[in-house]
Amino acid sequence: MADFSKHKFGTKAIHAGADADPSTGAIMTPIFQTSTYVQELPGKNKGYGYARGKNPTREALQKNIAALENGKHCICFSSGMGATDAVMKLLRPGDEVITGDDLYGGSYRMFTKIFANYGIKFHFINLSDANNIKKYVNANTKLIWAETPTNPTMQIIDIEACSAIAKENKILLAVDNTFASPYLQNPLALGADIVMHSVTKYLGGHSDVVMGALIVNDDKLQEQLYFILNSCGANPGPMDCFLVMRGIKTLHLRMERHCFNGKKIAEYLKTHPKIEKIYWPGFTDHPNHAIAKKQMRDFGGMISIVLKDKSIDNTFKLAGSFKVFSLAESLGGVESLINHPATMTHASIPKEEREKAGVVDNLLRLSVGVEDVEDLIEDLKQALG
Length: 385
What we know:
By secondary structure, this protein is α/β, with parallel strands linked by helices.
């Protein structure tokens, strides 16, 4: 297999892991739609025994994603939550986790409703100042779980600063890199031990697949996480892996357009008379903008806005009045989406906790797609009007 690790991002996106099929010369990785593999003798096979453990289509995708994150290993899961679940299964009762107070609602639900029941303690703190971590570190602390940018208030977490604290205290640092994508940010290079992606979002990019991925450099960590995948069964199917490989081939092109459109829309909304606050890390007055500029290559297509009108009924009315933006959960697809986190993606977080993090009833989250930006701005104009 050709080594594309030294090539630039776009070349890796198209070619890494995607050698021509040796039996036919097919340029696209075949979909190995099989549950099992014929063995010559018991235990003597061609490297594959049962498809929960390994599948050639999945392996090609894993090599591709690892290359994009400049990592050694990638393991794909049936969803981003499946990937997150595997990381949590590295822990034992009595262990403690430090994580952010602005967090994807599904992660919060998993931490508080599932793993807290098994004696794992979670500290939800403001991670925008990494020094806040130090107050919570003790002998039981085993993991720091960080999103950056965060969902949905776009907090920027200093990955290098978190990594320094983690390494000093022999704690794992996992970074949810979903909002940035590997095109904009590579946490392993900044000191993270584990990178998680909801592959459903920018990597797949077409709102047609649910998948997750973990990327690591450490061989032992890879073995532990793969053991969990194979034992617990949150493996993705080969058709989904094929679709994600196809999606990734245009990741660099899509991200350029997401960033371009996001900047134009953020600038339009910043001075709009009906907007009280806008969260987008590209503004110089955004908290930790300098860190975003240092650790990201651009600022992405995710924007959150807080309306001056605090009425939830009027917020709902506005959210339902778009013609190009679609009202839907998820993000990172080619189409533009609008989301009401308080009742959709973050509904599982208690209202008091949500509002402390800024996730108020009059906040809307935009996933800016790759349509013509003039049409998107016109749609915002008519909806806000």
